Amino acid sequence: MKEAPYISDAANCLIPTGLAEMDSISLMDRIETKYVVSLNMIPAIIGKLNGAYKILEINQTRVFDYHNVYLDTPEFHFFQQHVTGKYERYKVRFRKYVDTGTTFLEIKTKNNKKRTKKVRIESQLSEFNTLSFDANMFISERLKGRYPELNPVLINRFRRFTLAGFDSNERITVDYDLRYSDDTGSMARFPYIAVIEVKRDGRKVFSPVSRVIKDNRIHPCGFSKYCMGAAAMKDLAHKNNLKAKFLLLNRIENEYFRSIYA
């Protein structure tokens, strides 16, 4: 789906910036804070930022399509690491930036200090969902050969716009229209939520967007796009650990429809 008019209008109210400037605050080693809100709250949140952020614009486009293919072991080790609260956990994915045509193989690591580190190389899956020699070497070196049987297990598509602080060293992403599928034909979708992620280098700085979110009585909420999609579609061990997250999504969906039909 294309973005709802209110999302497009909110994005168009912000001052644009280019990819080069945005890459200067890529924050590949960072602290992340996530919030899950009703999709129709986004314009109100953006409207209260008072010019504190600029928005990424490429070729007059501000809302972009993303396509992730997540890898995991046959036992879904990475899923299990996350839902059981392991201190060190990984995600491995191919991410295609649909609007630019660029694809990266990315590995994300979260450690016991709650820091997230991301490394990546340009690479893509073959048409037979196989990994190249360079991709296999990259994964083996980064994960120290511990997970030799990684295969594609989940496809995730979503829409995103990205903000950068004028005075705060922050990168803000807003993801919505989350859609999932796999090679069995299973599908899932979370159409009424938006996931706001505040990324910073760890220093305590004033965060205008965090203040606006707090003023709206929205609390931080860990949300893994991979784990939520996998749990929605597959019968996996420990998926009930995410029950509270699914109850939250149901509540947000109800709020969305109440506001639409009020």
Question: Could you describe the 3D structure shown?
Answer:
This protein is of the alpha+beta class. The chain is 27% helix and 35% strand. It has eight helices and ten strands. It has helices at 5-12, 19-23, 42-47, 77-83, 133-142, 208-215, 225-233, 243-261, and strands spanning 15-17, 29-38, 53-56, 64-72, 89-97, 102-110, 115-122, 151-165, 170-181, 187-200. The chain has an eight-stranded antiparallel barrel with strand order 2-7-6-5-4-8-9-10, surrounded by five helices. A hairpin with a 5-residue loop joins strand 9 and strand 10 (187-200). It is globular and about 50 Å long. It starts with a helix and ends with a helix.
What structural category do the secondary elements indicate? alpha+beta
- Average residue pLDDT: 93
Task: Supply the number of helical segments.
Answer: 8
Task: Kindly state the number of beta strands.
Answer: 10
- Principal-axes geometry comes out as globular
Distance linking N and C termini:
24 Å
Rg estimate, integer Å: 18 Å
Order of helices and strands: HEHEHEEHEEEHEEEHHH
Share in helix: 25-40%
Low-pLDDT segments, ≥5 res: none
Largest sheet: 8 strands, antiparallel, barrel
Strand arrangement in the largest pleated sheet: 2-7-6-5-4-8-9-10
Strand content: 35-45%
